[in-house]
Design brief:
PyrdxlP-dep_Trfase; Aspartate Aminotransferase, domain 2; alpha/beta; PyrdxlP-dep_Trfase_major; 377 residues
Length: 377
């Protein structure tokens, strides 16, 4: 299979095999041009501020298009961890309430809720089975005191795609809200913010932008009552109102979660990267990564690596994890040979995006086979 994009659009792909997108994407050449545009606009003073606002709105429109929402439902924070913590500190969680999550979650999706245990909130951790969690698994511990269910759309650990839509359908019969972390899926497979209450994601992985932006999408159907505990000048409707020393009114939409200016250099880059992703088409990217992922799974099984990721195409996305007790050491060995994967936690993870092709699969498998032969001799 060929890549969906000319690989020369990225820096370094002519010298490296990049299966590292679940941790860091390769830099688009357009990032440098985006940074130059930001700097040039800064020199325009007040006009530059207007240009920044246009870029920010364009970014939100692109993200909203990917999520099936509207720009005003999108807030830009500094990172996904901040977005999750913002939600964890904004709810009226009380002693006796509980939060449901599972053991395939990344720490940023767990730690803010553990903090609530000091206030008497219970954290219920659903155990995975064969590196997977079903919607029924997540709904089973939900009761009348459950306030939030937290799940990644795609697990950073196993690569399993979680059926968040079925979870949301079940939760709509309760008072519990659903927070979906789309950090490992937004930009590579479709996701619908209307099938969750909150969706968070980061900018520098599958969205192909730089560090410095966290996306928070707020579905107002049930989450409209949420108000942040932190407030800044961008959170309120009129920061210079006559009563500003006595009271304020939050923005009526997701903007209430934005305290101040975002990282505009990041947004300039993300505007360019999301335009690229939308032009290729998320559905096309999904088909590509599933087909190429099938190739990689078959080849990895052939040389003795057992997949942790579900084999069914509708149960996986771009992340493919394989059982590997010495994954960290093996990833370091591959790095020295110009191939980037993630190793650790008893696994080797290869992340496939629109820039990968069958030659990348062949290179990884060839290098792994060579390393195995060297270790055996």
């Amino acid at each position: 299979m060929e890549a969906l994009i000319d690989r020369s659009a990225f820096l370094g792909l002519d010298q490296r095999t990049w299966f590292y997108g679940g941790a860091e994407s390769p830099p688009l050449r357009g990032m440098a041009e985006a940074a130059k545009a930001y700097i040039a606009n800064r020199a325009n003073g007040p006009d530059g501020r207007l240009q920044n606002a246009e870029v920010e709105l364009a970014c939100k429109r692109n993200i909203a298009a990917m999520l099936g929402g509207r720009p005003e439902q999108i807030a830009i924070l500094s990172n996904a961890s901040e977005a999750i913590s913002m939600i964890a500190t904004s709810g009226d969680f009380r002693a006796g309430d509980n939060i449901v999550l599972h053991d395939l979650e990344f720490p940023s999706g767990v730690l803010p809720w553990l903090r609530l245990k000091e206030s008497g909130v219970e954290v219920r951790v659903v155990p995975s089975r064969e590196w997977n969690v079903t919607a029924d698994d997540l709904l089973a511990p939900v009761d009348e005191r459950t306030r939030m269910v937290v799940t990644s759309h795609v697990s950073y650990m196993s690569g399993a795609r979680i059926d968040y839509r079925s979870v949301y359908a079940g939760l709509k019969k309760t008072q519990a809200l659903l927070l979906v972390d789309a950090t490992q899926s937004l930009g590579v497979v479709p996701i619908d913010m209307n099938e969750a209450d909150f969706v968070v994601a980061s900018s520098y992985k599958w969205l192909l932008a730089g560090h410095g932006a966290g996306i928070l999408a707020v579905n107002p159907e049930r989450a409209g009552r949420f108000r942040p505990r932190y407030v800044g000048w961008r959170s309120v409707e009129d920061m210079f109102s006559e009563s500003r020393f006595e009271s304020f009114r939050f923005m009526p939409d997701a903007r209430r979660f934005e305290g101040g200016y975002p990282s505009y250099p990041t947004l300039y880059a993300m505007k360019a990267s999301t335009e690229l992703l939308l032009s290729v088409g998320i559905d096309n990217i999904e088909r590509h990564v599933l087909a190429l992922g099938g190739e990689l799974i078959a080849e990895m099984k052939r040389i003795g690596f057992a997949p942790m990721t579900p084999l069914a195409p509708d149960r996986r996305a771009g992340n493919l994890s394989f059982v590997c007790p010495d994954g960290e050491r093996l990833a370091e060995t591959l790095r020295k040979r110009g191939t980037y994967v993630w190793g650790g936690d008893g696994r080797l993870r290869a992340s496939i995006h629109l820039y990968n092709d069958s030659n990348d699969v062949a290179t990884l498998v060839r290098q792994l086979s060579a390393i195995a032969e060297e270790n055996a001799s």
